[in-house]
Structure formats: structure tokens, C-alpha cells
Amino acid sequence: MNTTIPNSMTRGLAMNIVKPESIAVFCLTPGGVRLARRLQTHLPLTCFTSDKLLESGFLPFNGSFGNTIREAFKQYSALVVVGAIGLTVRVIAPLVNDKMTDPAVVVIDERGQHVISLLSGHVGGANTLTRYLAGILGADPVITTATDVNEMAALDTLATQLDGEMQDFRHAVKVVNQMLVSNQKVGLWWDTPLLAERERCDTRGFVPVDCLEQLSLDQLSLAQRPPLDALVCITLRDTLPLPADQLATLPVYKLVPRRVVAGIGCRRATSLQTLVELLQQQMAENHFDIMALRAIGSVTIKKDEPALHQLAQCWRVPFELFSVGELSRHEQRFPASDFVRQTVGVGSVSQPVAWLMSDGKLVGNTLRQQGVTITLGVSH
């Protein structure tokens, strides 16, 4: 029996994905407590139960099961209820808001015979968690999402696996997943820099497209072109490498993995508008879609720089900080500025920051304008 934690449960991904350290388990009976004990040997869980069933390693309900699960709904990425599915539905019904952000909810009967994916199966990770817990318990996983039932991938699952963004994501997921389960042909094209990631993703049901030129209206006859109903392109580029008029008759959805990191140095009190405009300029000059941005970073002396925090918030990405000591170890790789050294303590900021964030995979030239330096890297 394989009880290795799946990759999709160990990373923070596009929307809300299950993390092992953020799973709450609710036990309503002695049998539920015993089952939770079994799960605790495989995963770091926070387990709740009633005062009368309380044991070492468990936390008491905050007044009641209902109160506790309502609080946990906002705090944990996954909730596992060992008990009746009807009770669980009644308690969480007023809390359900959005499939992109709601936590995964899984229900297990107290004898451990069935593990049921109840809420947020794809983006929330409930289906993955259901299969994993069922593997531990030797139980039957109960999954009802149409793509899974038909043994097909889903666009939202693929986006989660890639930590990807997409314009009008909700609409795209609805359309593409419906096409897949209706046996329509949805092509899937991977840009060359991302091909290595294909093997770790679930692409069942998609039609592989190796070359976009295969779809050219000018170069091929209708009989020669792959008979596709839609196309999903996985790329970091701001524009696809094919004239738009050649794909005018085909719905195209661009899925952009978040892989680009930006090391930034700036003068004190640089405005947010300046940083936004220069970062957009640097991304465009390197032909990156702005959705590809994964994180920004700087030196620790900039930890209280308001515009850098605001910039990270604008694109919902982390703001990472590096000490002078960390940057100094890579300083010799890049041109140094005496002014920057006197001000910050190291001769260069944006380049060594981007180097560390991307494991040395820098892209393009460093932007130097208006007292701001921006260096990009690509992290896989």
C-alpha cells in the first residue's frame, strides 16, 4: 500500500490546495477517535472531539461540533469528518461560498469503509486527499466529479498541479471540463520550456498537440488539421507563437504557470505606480505574461518598504527577503555599485536576489530606471 504524501498535497498551489499541516479531523464517536489515531501515524493532523471522548493529542470542541467546524472552515485547507455525511452537509451548508477558495471537505464512516469527497474536489484537493486517506485505511474512495468518474483529467486539476493562472478561469473550467466529459476533443499544447513538467501532470482525455503550426489555417487544409473543439496552451508567454487569425475558429485557453521571479532593488519611498509600471515593462520586454509572476524579492533592509509590499499584494504573490550575508555570497557574479554598497551593505540587490529565487536561472537584462533595478528569473 502506497502512503506517500502526493505532490499535490505538499505545495501551496493556484487557489486552495490541501497541505498536510493544515488538515483538521473531527471525531464524533469512540470509533471515530480510534480511526483518527490511525490517520495520525501517517499525517500531521489537528484532531478535535467532544470533552467526553478527549484523549491525549486531541483538542476539545469549542462548545460544539458545529461551532468548531465553522471556525475551522476559515482556518484549515481541509476538513475531515469521521461521521455521518448528512450531519456534515447540514453543518457546512451555510459556509459554502466558492469552489476556488472553499476548503476540501472529506467524510469517513467510523468503521473506515468509505472515504467520501464532499466539497472542493479539484481545486481544493478533496479528491486527492480522499484517495490518499482511502489508501491508508484500505477503504473505498467515493468520488463523484464527472471528469474523475470518466477517468479524465480536469482543467482545474491541471491548473492546480502547475500552480497556474488563467483569464476568466471559472468560465474556462466549466467549458473545458464539460467538453472533456462530452467526448469532445480538447487539444493540449506545452511550450518548450515547460515540456519537462508534462510527465508529472494528469492529462488524460486531452489531445496532445506537439506543434501549433499543425493548426494553421494557411498552411494546412481542413482535412489535415487536427479536429479539435478547443485548445489549451500551457506557456509563460504573453502572446502565443501563432497569429491570432489562424486560430480564429478555435476556442483557445492559455494556462500560465507561475514560474517567474523578480529581484527588485529600489530607492526609499519609491512609489507603487513606478514599481508597477517598471515591472510590467520588464515582463513585457522578456515576453512574459504578467500572470507568470510567482514572487518578488529584495534585501531585508527593504522589509518595511510600503510599495514593495503593495506590489506583492497587487499580484497576490509572496514578498521574499534575503539578508546581506546571503546576497554577498553571490555578489561577485554581478556588477557592483559603491552607492548601493554604502546604502544597503552589498554591491547589488536585484541580481543576487533573482539568482537565489530562481536557483541561478536568470532571464534577460536587468532593468535600471528611476532608481529601481529589476532582474527576472524562472523557477521550475
TrEMBL record:
Please report the stretch or stretches of sequence annotated as the Cobalamin synthesis G N-terminal domain.
68-148
All copies of domain Cobalamin biosynthesis central region, residue ranges: 154-251
List, alphabetically, the Pfam families matched: CbiG_C, CbiG_mid, CbiG_N
Output the GO biological process annotations, alphabetical, semicolon-separated.
Answer: cobalamin biosynthetic process
All copies of the CobE/GbiG C-terminal domain together span: 260-376
Q: What is this protein called?
A: Cobalamin biosynthesis protein CbiG
What is the protein's species of origin? Yersinia aldovae
